[in-house]
Structures are given as structure tokens and as C-alpha cells.
Amino acid sequence: MKKIALLMLLTILVFLSCNDDNDNGEFADYLVARPLVMSRVEFANSVDIVAPLPIDESGKIYAYQDYIFINDKYKGVHVIDNSNPDTPQKISFIKIAGNVDISIKDDFLYADSLTDLVVLDISDMNNISIVNRLENVLRDNVIFPFEAQIFEWQDIDYENELIVGWETVTERRRIADVEQPELFIDEAVTANDAGGDTGQGGSLARFKIVDDYLYAVDSHQINVFEISDLENPKDLEDVFAGFDIETIFNRGEHLFLGSMRGMYIYNISSPATPTFVSEFQHGTACDPVVVDENYAYVTLRGGNFCGATESGLYIIDITTIESPELQVIYPMDEPYGIGVKDDKLFVCDGASGLKVYDKSDIPDLEQLNHFEDIVTFDVIPLENQLLMIGDEILYQYEYLNDDIRLISSLNLN
Predict the structure, then answer these.
(1) How far, in Å, CA of 327 to CA of 364, rounded?
(2) What angle is formed at CA 248 by the lines to CA 243 and CA 253, rounded to 5 degrees?
(3) Which stretch of DSSP H or E encloses residue 116?
(4) How far is CA 262 from CA 73, 256, 308, in A?
């Protein structure tokens, strides 16, 4: 963990200075990040199944059979019975320290716990059990909140404590007192086609199961696990994939990785050894990617320390997979997750709401609907309904011929 701490310090260098003589300066709101710390002893015993809890910070969403799993960032997973989409019910909470991602196949749930991979048997939702824990197999899985503008560190005993996540809050600061962070990158390190009964994650997922393999991306690598024996994953050789990898999406024999620098495409026809095919570079921004037969859809979110100043939806022609080409850019406000279902494209545009488009005539999009006055984060287009996670609220919509309609919302607090 000393190595991880050193990496953090090298990756994000932030200096705060206080000048008592500048009391009359201008003020602004800043997003401040502070580390969440846990003792090593507590971390080793941090997985547990408890009664439903209020959500603290909405994370990613995952659907499996009649259940919905919603990540509570760095804390675990809320389990929701969705057998009746009109009235979904919270039934339990799986406590997993440092958790941000899950994936499920044939009643086995795989979850990250900082650098560990945890396996749970969920065949009986009233009796979820832990069946395995692989330690230190997600080696670069420390996720920094790059959208933050100020990082504040506290005294941490790295011999006995771990950083398991980050707390981000908006605080008002004097502009003259805040020196902008300098990001350091080490240049020298330079639709879900899964087999079996597999669940479905959103566009922000970092875990993806394809047949007998689990692919888990961290900031630089594709971590490959062979899961034919579901209880006992085999940790295979990692594949270096670039820089600042954020998301993973699968279509057919290809993985599409979304990063702060661009979109990377890997071939998994030999599933144990993903091989690089091509890339599309878009500068520096926070982004996920989803794909249909001929196009990749990438949202870039600017206005933060991912680097970009402009936000937008990029549509990329991948007809020739070896040479993806940009078709068009649509301006957005603060886009996060995206989803595709038949001829519909769904864009979570942050505080600007959910935008629904007809994508049947690329590069021209026709906006079908705009659900305003809600905060949106990520979507999962299922066969019969659309799931969307917002600001501590789960929304469900039904598809109409050329529109969608809200059928329920569940406040997670």
C-alpha cells in the first residue's frame, strides 16, 4: 500500500496556500476530495450482507434476472427486487469496502474490493454467501476522482490503514487561496454477448463477463480471469491497454475501452489474451462508450480536471474496425452514461436530464424526448424496460413506438 500511496502522491499534486491578507478576494465553489480510510483489520473482514440501508452516494447500476444492483460508492451494493417494476423493493445491502463494480454469471457475483476480487453465491437472495476472495489481483484499481478540483490529505498510517475511496463535497473557497492541481502521468508506462445467464451493466462499467472470462479494467490494464469454475476464478496474465482506462463494453469478439484519452478496441477471439486492434483519440476527457453494429457512441464530459473544456456526444464509424472514423459531434452539457436499444439512443446528461434520440439516420439524430429536472448518471436498456440511476433515485421507463414513458421511481434513501 505504500506503493499505492506513492502513486497517488505522484499522480495528483495539489498545493493549498492560505493568505490572511487577502480576506477581500473573490470566492468560488470547488469540488473538494478527501480520502476515506479504513484499518487493515476492518478491511479484511469488510464483506457482509445486512438489511437495506439508505444510499450514501449513487454509483453504477447492474441488472440480473428480476433484480437490480446499485453500487453505493466505495461501500457496497444495494439489492432491489424488481419482479414488479411498478413497485421495486430494496431487500438487502452487500457491504464491500472499496467497491465500485460488479458482474454476475449463473448466480455468482464478482465484485471488486479495492485490489481484491470477491466472489459471492447469490442463488438464494435470502442467504447470500461469500465463497472466495482473491487478494491483490486488481493491482491498479485505485480510482481517483479526477472531477475534483482540490485534494486534501489527512495523516494516514499506511502500515495499519488503507484508502478505500474518496469523499467529494462542494465547498466555497477564496480563489486566490486555491492553486490548480497539476496532473502527472508517467509516459514511460506507455451489448453484451456473454455466454450463460449473465447480467447487464451500464456504460460506466469496468467489469465485463464474456463466456468463461471476466475482464476487469483498471487505470492501465485489462485484468483477465478465467471463470469456467465460477467459484474459483483463475487470475491470468494482465494486458497493458493504455492510460486512464475508465470503462469497458463488449460486442461480439471485441472489447471497447473508454479512457480519458480515447477509445481502444481489443480483439478477444483468443479470450485469454486480448490483442490491440485500433484506437480513436479525442484529446483528454472523462468518457464511456457503447456500440451497435456500425457505430460507437462516446460521451465526453468537460469542465473538470479530466482535461476537456467542452462536453459532447461523439459518434464514430466502426464499420472498418481497424480504422474508426469520427462522424459527428453533438454538444452536451455534462454527459455521463449512454445506452442503445434498437433505433433509440439514451444519453444521461447529468443535471440536464435524460435525452432520448432516434439514431436510425446517422449522422443525423432526432430528439424524441427530454426528461428535464432530474439528475442522471447511467442507463441500462433492457429488453422490456429502461433502467436509469440518478441522484439517489432509480427510474424505470417502458418503451413506446417512438418514445419512452416513466413507469416508476424508487428513492434509495
Answers:
(1) 10
(2) 115
(3) strand 116-121
(4) 25, 10, 12
